[in-house]
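User: Could you check the structure of this?
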Amino acid sequence: MTFLDTYLAETAKLVTELDRDAIAVALDTIKTAHANDRRVFLCGNGGSSATASHMVNDLVKMPTTLGKKSVRAINLSDNVPLLMAVANDIDYADIFVVPLKAQFQPGDVVIGLSASGNSENVLRAIRHANDNGGVTIGLCGFTGGKLRELAQMPIYVANDDYGPVEDAHCVICHALAYWFLDTLRQEG
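Assistant: Sure, the predicted structure tokens are below.
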């Protein structure tokens, strides 16, 4: 078996073992936020930030293909000047919580993505939402880290390598976005 065969088999196994009930609860959370005109904030570092941007793209664009209103989704790492200012002048661990303090309202959703589950900046965003009437979802891997404990709805991927965990997180985000689109399509 080649490295590629092993990697693909491991990733496929992770995807088939995803907690479908947890993903369904996350979908209901996004649907509720959309129906109530609440915002969905996403945050993550590195590859997780890219996955968050991709999910925002899908949640904002996809409903428009059906003539429906978009999800009010925002990736907190997409404003690079603000990130750099907070990281430089305050603390890197506050790069997500500072914009949340400016924009977050009770009932909004925060989705934190962290393969290790221990990214302090993601944890601070989740804590802020928990402490201020928000709904929190955490996509995590490895042992789940602190994110698995803090998020009201953790979606855990049982693996300790970044690539397969981030691959599974991409699948989760796509599943949520396409499932949401299918729900809108069925509503007519």
